[in-house]
Amino acid sequence: MRKSIVTLGLTAVLTGVLAACTMVYADSDELSQIQESGTLKVGVEGTYPPYTYHDDDGTLTGFDVDVAKAIADKLGVEADFTESDWDSLLAGIDSGRLDTVINAVSITDEREEKYDFAGPYFYITQQIVVAKDNDDIVDMTSLDGKKMANTATTAYLDLLEDAGVSLVQISTADEAVSLISSGRADFTTFNSVVFNEYLKQHPDANLKVAFVIPDVQDEYGVPVKKGETALYDAIQNAIDELKEDGTLSQLSMDYFDTDFTQPEDAATDSSKADSDTTDSDDSTTTDSSNSDAEASDSDAE
């Protein structure tokens, strides 16, 4: 009887210890694990210039690569990059293989159902790109019945399917161009930055911009697993600081010669403010000149 009581007591103690360990593990949020490991696991394509690509020496580089490094630095860790096809990147967050994906990830309603997005940190429009001899596609209405070469997870799939478009699935931009050239697809989508970069690398490409998708501004964010509040807050704070200290703007200028890190309206307002300041300075200069002229006339008299 006494032996049974001792056994039951030991069992209760061990159960309590195991429960406590389980609770500690559960309370160990992803940010704590990242800081303990010293690395932020970031998914990228590595084949999407100028966001993520390899330079002539084979080194992984690009705007988003530098953004990821800057965010990791703010978190006090280093960015550890994993390269994969676009369609499998976000799944890496679901499986725990990745902490986040920083690779021109558009913020969409559908994606926000699965992930929390820090940001946005980048704003840009999307273009419909066709073969140079294609004069049929000129606006959204003309897309009805047309075939689009794109990934299955493109941010604009729902919008374009609502316009009557059918998807021809691809994994890379080169595949999309090949399908358009062969006539197996009618168009694809590029943002202006990526398309300009593509034309630099392929100056003889038989492609042109048909039109810009109207009333849509693409916003890129940094996705994390739903419920990882500490990690989300840390990345959001990092992005806010990188905006405030000018790091993001400078990276955008380095890669694109344009600041895409603020919304189009804000950029327009900023340009207008600069213009107003210049006009004000010119006005002040003119007034000063007139005043000097009047003083000279007075002296002459």
End-to-end C-alpha gap:
125 Å
CA radius of gyration is 27 Å
Number of strands: 12
> Helical residue percent?
40-55%
Global outline: globular
Give the strand line-up of the largest sheet.
4-1-5
Low-confidence region ranges: 2-27, 267-301
What does this structure look like?
- The protein is an alpha/beta fold.
- The protein has 11 helices and 12 strands.
- The longest helix is centred in the C-terminal third of the chain and has 37 residues, at 264-300.
- The chain starts with a helix and ends with a helix.
- Mean pLDDT is 84; it is low at 2-27 and 267-301.
Short description:
By secondary structure, this protein is of the alpha/beta class.
Write the layout of secondary structure elements.
Layout: H1 2-27, H2 30-37, E1 39-44, E2 53-54, E3 60-61, H3 63-74, E4 78-83, H4 86-95, E5 100-101, H5 109-112, E6 115-124, E7 126-131, E8 147-150, H6 157-162, E9 166-169, H7 173-182, E10 188-191, H8 192-201, E11 207-212, E12 218-225, H9 229-244, H10 247-256, H11 264-300
Parallel strand pairs: 1-4, 1-5, 8-9
Antiparallel strand pairs: 2-3, 6-12, 7-10, 7-11
Helix pairs in contact: 3-9, 3-10
What are the key terms here?
single chain; 301 residues; alpha/beta; three-stranded parallel sheet; 11 helices; 12 strands; 20% strand; globular; disordered N terminus; disordered C terminus
